[in-house]
Amino acid sequence: MGTIQVKRGLSANLPSSTATGELLYTTDTKCFYLGNGVGNALTKFENGTQLATYLAGKSDVGHTHTSSEVTDFSSSVDARITLQKAVANGLATLDVSGKIPTTQIPSTFKEAEVVVDIAARNALSAFSGLHALVLDATADATVDSGGAEYVYDGTAWQKISEFNDLDLIINWDDIQNKPTYLGSFENLPDTPADYTGQAGKIVAVKQTEDGVEFIDTVTSNVDGGSF
To answer: Is 26 exposed, middle or buried, given 0-12, 13-18 or 19+ CB atoms closer than 10 A?
Structure first.
């Protein structure tokens, strides 16, 4: 088996400094010296025991530390975070309400345009989600007068509101909480059940005043009498 020998020589020939971590040994005085970098004085050890004690207080080449063991950890991390705030490829900040300032939000997510007419809207560099308020939208066949608001869906502009009204077609079946649709007169409460035999008659309030009924119309002269 081979042996490993450290750099050695007479004490008279000992260099004044050497590379960091380099170990030297003087054969005449039997001392060890540890290099601290070129230009720095050597660390002297009188014997192997002293050297072992010194090395015992040093960490292995591969080792870890907890954050509490690093004296300037918190201040260094805070300083690093500060350097990355509100800069390109850095960190977004929060305002006093805990929200990201609009200046740090990409225009894709916040931008809205106000334009004079449909032609100006069509000239915009549109992206999906862009809102445009058109002051005069009458060039849109669905807008009779005034303006309208649109959103670009990535392919085309979609109208979402008008200044005056919004053209909507709503099916009766789609309306929630609507009143019951009776369909015809005879389905109303307190009315005759059907029209059979009621031709030519008119509707009048019953004498009992609790509903309506069909009665004959006046087709002859009425004499009010005399006094």
So the answer is: middle
Q: Which two tokens stand for residue 108?
A: 């894709």
In whole angstroms, how far apart are CA 51 and each of 13, 44, 173? Answer: 21, 9, 93
Q: Cα separation of 69 and 74, whole Å? A: 11
Measure the CA–CA gap between 129 and 195, rounded to whole angstroms.
58
pLDDT tens for each residue of 16-55: 899 998 988 899 988 888 889 888 888 888 776 776 777 7
Centre a 10 Å sphere on the Cβ of residue 20 and count the other Cβ atoms it contains.
Answer: 11
Q: Which long-range contacts (CB under 8 A, 24 or more apart) does 179-188 make?
A: none
Q: Which of 166, 110, 114, 173 is nearest to 140 (CA)?
A: 166
Query: Whole-prediction pTM value?
Result: 0.33
What ranges do the domains of the chain cover?
A: 7-56, 71-105, 107-162, 170-217
Cα separations in angstroms, 113 against 39, 106, 107, 133, 181: 67, 15, 11, 6, 45
